[in-house]
Write a structure and sequence with these properties.
Layout: H1 8-14, H2 16-24, E1 28-29, E2 34-35, H3 38-41, H4 44-48, E3 52-57, H5 59-76, E4 80-84, H6 85-90, E5 99-105, H7 111-122, E6 126-131, H8 137-141, E7 144-147, H9 160-179, H10 185-206, H11 209-219, E8 224-229, H12 233-248, E9 251-256, E10 273-278, H13 284-295, E11 300-306, H14 311-315, E12 318-322, H15 330-348
Parallel strand pairs: 3-4, 3-5, 5-6, 6-7, 8-9, 8-10, 10-11, 11-12
Antiparallel strand pairs: 1-2
Helix pairs in contact: 2-9, 2-10, 5-9, 5-12, 10-15, 11-15, 12-15
The structure holds 5-amino-5-deoxy-1-O-phosphono-D-mannitol.
């Protein structure tokens, strides 16, 4: 069932072009510039009148929530908070009937996320679920929802669940923006067209595999890694670090690049590999100066850049090129090489990629 791949994780990484397509299939109508999503349409007034959106999730799904925060605030101008479900539920949070809670969960069975939903419902909030597993507990417990349609994800490390969550959350934001009249017809069309171009661009990203494998062989014995990104690529940095930790058992941290100088930069020396996401759209100049700071401390720089980039290439030890897209859709692209990097490093370290130690696919205990 691994379809010729050595591991489910690798198979699932490669399934992403199709999984993303399956997620938007039937929901995007390019010619009409329309997004169809019943769970949103049926509750459109409730959703667009929200005073606040609170996103609850754990792990990788929480990272997808962080990406959604950027998308929602950009497109629909409703304040968004992203919460670890486990902290939210035990914190006596302020929740009102004017809030919309979005719960994100691949499995739909994560105990803390489920408990957070129950709490939000008790307080009168409207709860919307983004799940992959059809008929799961979270899918049943929420007032409405949208499935990711990623197909079964077997590898413990989440890959296609993450990119399809971002896909569906982008569609939700676009749908709400459309209803609120916050996007012109041409802006909406541009977004939809670009979304439809994503599967082919992800396919192109997958072609960096051999190069990423080579980079992996150089750094597989490093005890630490740093991952840096800004804006939409900040959650991608967190996700890249989580992926490396969970499957290769290398300590890794993700940071917003500008936070470096507030502490983590003290860690940097010539032994530290630093993965920097430095794509053209989104704070490029700022990231360049962050790279300079790291470079002057002699760290090894592995940069994810937009195809054709020359400036980062001059400073970085390795560059991984990815195709350009809209800033809001960048995480769908920049995540891919980071998945491959953690995968290859884990394989080279002879780790159990699909079933890392101490981890379960869904965390049904609190
Ligand atoms: O099924 P869920 O999306 O609710 O799971 C949440 C986390 O347990 C999950 O994303 C976990 O962090 C993954 N192992 C990450 O790869």
């Amino acid at each position: 069932e691994k379809n010729g791949y050595d591991h489910f994780m690798l198979k699932e990484i490669h399934e992403q072009p199709d999984a993303i397509k399956d997620t938007y299939r039937g929901r995007l109508l390019l010619n009409d510039g329309i997004i169809k999503m019943a769970g949103i349409e049926d509750n459109i007034e409730r959703l667009t009148s929200a005073q606040r959106i609170i996103i609850v999730a754990c792990g990788t799904s929480w990272h997808a929530g962080l990406v959604a925060e950027y998308i929602f605030e950009d497109l629909i101008r409703i304040p968004v908070e992203v919460e670890y479900a486990s902290e939210f539920r035990y914190r006596n949070p302020v929740i009102t009937p004017n809030d919309v809670v979005i719960a994100i969960s691949q499995s739909g069975e994560t105990a803390d996320t489920l408990a957070a939903i129950k709490l939000a419902k008790e307080k009168g909030a409207f709860v919307f679920g983004v799940c992959n597993v059809v008929g799961s507990s979270i899918a049943r417990e929420t007032h409405a929802g949208a499935y990711t349609h990623a197909g079964p994800e077997i590898g413990v490390a989440s890959t296609k669940a993450f990119t399809t969550q971002i896909t569906v959350l982008s569609l939700i934001a676009l749908k709400l923006a459309q209803f609120k009249g916050m996007l012109s017809a041409s802006q909406l069309r541009e977004y939809i067209a670009e979304m439809e171009a994503i599967p082919a661009k992800v396919e192109e990203c997958l072609k960096v595999d051999a190069h990423v494998k080579y980079i992996s062989s150089m750094y597989k014995d490093s005890p630490n890694f740093l991952y840096l990104g800004r804006g939409y690529n900040f959650p991608v940095a967190l996700e890249g670090a989580l992926k490396l930790k969970e499957i290769s058992y290398i300590h890794a941290e993700g940071y917003p690049a500008a936070e470096m100088k507030h502490g983590p930069i003290a860690l940097i020396d010539e032994h530290m590999p630093v993965v920097v996401i430095a794509t053209k759209r989104g704070h490029y100049e700022k990231v360049l100066s962050n790279i300079q700071e790291i470079k002057s401390r002699k760290a090894k720089i592995i940069a994810v850049v937009t195809k054709g980039d020359t400036e980062v290439r001059e400073m970085a030890d390795h560059v991984i090129e990815v195709p350009e897209t809209l800033e809001g859709l960048t995480p769908l692209i920049t995540t891919i090489p980071l998945q491959l990097l953690s995968y290859h490093i884990a394989v080279m370290r002879e780790c159990n990629v699909d079933q890392p130690r101490n981890l379960a696919k869904s965390v049904t205990v609190e």
